[in-house]
Amino acid sequence: MSAKKIVFRIIYIAASVLAVILILMFLLWVGRRGYEFGYRIFTETAASEPPGKDVVVLIRSDMSKRDVAKLLEEKGLVKDDLLFLAQYALTDYDKIEPGTYTMNTSMSVHEIAELMEGEAESETESEEEKQELLPGDELPVEEEVYPEEVPAEEIGAEE
Hints:
Elements: H1 3-43, E1 54-59, H2 65-74, H3 81-89, E2 99-104, H4 109-116, H5 120-123, H6 152-158
Antiparallel strand pairs: 1-2
């Protein structure tokens, strides 16, 4: 073998090893980023601690979910628009009603999704209706309503 062939063979092997190392480092980086994103989907907190700041948001009917996510990130209601989209996809809500909403930076993605679907007022109980029961407390009993008593003569007359 000539010296020229040996040098080319060494360069080829070194380039191959370097390519494998770079590919492995890239796969490690992608895996780490994917894991961090997946972890944040389930552990991400609100954009700020309570009491937060009220922000008025106008959602138009021509806006996509991606546009809404970008708007919420710009307004400081969510930390990451892509993360919001992933979290929103995991909620029970699938549509966003256009309108003007007053949101707070301390709201969770679930609370924001509930508000944007237009169910925040009608579906949830008000604070006065909520009662925390402690061990030993009796359940609240609602007044029972019975139908009017029908005289026995009328029951027999129907037959």
